[in-house]
Amino acid sequence: MAQMANEPTVKEDQLLFCFFSIDKPDSLALRQQLRPQHKTYLANVAEQIAFAGPLLSDDGVTMQGSLLVIDFADRVEAQTWLDDEPFAKAGLFESVSIRPFQNLWPQRAGFPPVA
Q: pLDDT value at position 112?
């Protein structure tokens, strides 16, 4: 596949880790309470984050979990990071899945658009 001019290069050998976490029922208050610590913890790996944010209910507002894609050397490093993550340490999550992820689609500058 030919690369377009000014298109970011995708490193096909780069392995990221996707964290798909679902909150326990009725845990929004705990999520809100821990959010400042969670954001501070994320800041420690900011340069490694491909993208991150809350999973939402169908109303588009209520947070129900988290989706994070972060560059770690291996699964052990990813799991070690998760073990100290404030939401995980406090027992917010009903389930967490960590999967290797390979980004083969370049991110678009300015996407998503800022309102």
A: 66
